[in-house]
Amino acid sequence: MMESDEHNQESERNVTVENLNIEILPIIYEIIRSVEKDHHDNTAKARESQDCSQKVLELQKRLDQARAEIRLLPGIEYSKEQQLDHLEALKTQLKLKQELLRKYRYILSESYPMRKAAQVVVRAVYHGKNLIEERGLDKRLSPEEFRALMKRIAQNLQGQIKQASDEFKHKMK
Q1: Which segments cross the bilayer (predicted)?
Q2: How far, in Å, CA of 77 to CA of 16, rounded?
Q3: Over the stretch 46-55, which tens digit does the pLDDT of each residue have?
Q4: pTM attached to this predicted model
């Protein structure tokens, strides 16, 4: 009993338009065909009238079943205006996300910040290495002098990164 209730609730949540089973045209066709028949015999008319009533009841049953299935569709509880508002909000979100993707693609395709950051780092490394070799500091630097040199290089590197960042921000506007 408990499992069937859970199964019904789960199947109710998974209802989609594609899953709807609404077959009413064949019954409507049979009803129209039986009404169009012209019987001269009263018993045949009565029998046909009874068959037509059965078909009308079957049509009513299928329409009720279709209504019940349609009520299970997600979002059916919202009015047309609410659905349109929700659709508009989704379209706006889609446009914003497309814009973000376009910006990110531009950044990645240009990869200006990455190239600029790599250039700054490589320039700083080579510049520092050349300074150390030119001045012969690689053999006679004390730990304090080495820290001071690294601090100057770090400050220089931070300045260049800030400059590259400012250039990038200006370029993105």
Answers
A1: none
A2: 14
A3: 788 888 889 8
A4: 0.42
